[in-house]
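Course assignment 3, question 2. Fill in each field.
Student: A.L.
Task: Predict the tertiary structure for the chain below.
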Amino acid sequence: MGARSKARKRALDIVFEADAKGVPILMVLGEHQRRRVSEGESDLNTYSVELAEGVAANMESIDRLISEHSTGWSLERMPTVDRAILRVATFELVFGDSVPDPVVVSQAIELAKDLSTDDSGAFVHGVLGAISRSHVSG
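Answer field:
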């Protein structure tokens, strides 16, 4: 797994944990950073921090886009891990500029297949494909 993939997974863990606990992303991010320092580990990857902070700063826009493009599924009905994957990937697609859209979508699909339900890969693919197309044309 490449450095960006690991950073993306770490950001996903933070966004997921915040959602599952019902607390702000930045609170969980701070806890992870303090824990790493206290355990003598290196700082979180800069890209992990960028992704987590970006999702936190743009949550309203991100959730609106996901809701608009997830036919038949409200955010509340989605599995928490799918919601976290979609939030991180949507941030990368819409607000990021360093990773090509097909790479973002592909890695999100792989995370969904590895971490969620049998149908999650296709669901994530459909939602992110629609967001990517609307972002390019929008």
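Instructor remarks: The mean pLDDT is 93. Helices lie at 3-21, 25-38, 46-57, 59-69, 80-95, 101-115, 120-137.
Grade: pending
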